[in-house]
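Sanity check. The docking grid for magnesium ion depends on where the pocket ends up, so I'm generating a full predicted complex first rather than guessing from homology. Inputs follow.
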Amino acid sequence: MIWKLPFNLKKTKKLTQAVKERPIPKHIAIIMDGNGRWAKARQLPRVAGHRQGVEVLRDIISICSELGVNHLSLFAFSTENWNRPDDEINALMSLMVEFLQKEIAELHEKGVKIWMLGDIKGLPEAAAREVENAKAVTRNNKGLQVNIAINYGSRTEIIRAVQNIARDVSIGKIAINDINEDCFSHYLYTNGIPDPDLLIRTSGEFRLSNFLLYQCAYTEFLFTEKQLLWPDFNKQKLLESIFEYQNRSRRFGGIIE
Ligand code: IPE
Ligand code: IPE
Ligand code: MG
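Predicted complex below; grid placement will be based on this.
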């Protein structure tokens, strides 16, 4: 990783202990990037990278759950990803369906609650059905909430919020003076979800690619080196990321004595 880890914390067990002793981020957002390059490096089709990427998810969800993280937001498919070839889009949707079908029972058992960020109406029927089912099954769970961003774009989210606010003003449901940050946040897909404390993007791309633009005003960003592609991410890397986060000084515009 790009930061320095003390030598005595190189082992996962020790690092887990160290991380648990300090405040755990309540909300971690991840831009899981680099699946295609991972596959290309192995002369495999891009979908092999996506498949391996899904494997990593299982471990990441389980460690977040164990650490007591409240929200894990995963960027799985952006509104711009529709620009990819049809066969890749279909493969990504099928992988999502397969993941939910295979994992839902275990996730439910762990108390994980599945939520979706994005426009479900734009999804193929099978994917929409599976997401709705996962949400319904895990609705009352109190553990980690996994927010899967599919067909998600931050600009669309903001414009949709503005339209809905305008509509509510026009029918007298809210007054113009009621519109403030708190009110606005209720109109976003992330309604009720606190802003991310930590955002991780793998594969050395230093951009947000239309993910949670409004919500990340004070989020700590962690961009990995380009050699670390999502299919190679793991528990240890997540712990290292949290350790790095715990050593940052968040000031929110104020000062720390
Ligand atoms: C991220 O990996 C997964 C999705 C966008 C769905 P990519 O498919 O973007 O992989 P690279 O960036 O081409 O390596
Ligand atoms: C962002 O990655 C979207 C997801 C990880 C789902 P992209 O690979 O699509 O982003 P760009 O095109 O490199 O900005
Ligand atoms: Mg990419």
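Relevant for the grid: The CA atoms of residues 204 and 225 lie 5 Å apart.
Also worth noting: Residues 33 surround magnesium ion (ligand 3) (CB under 6 Å).
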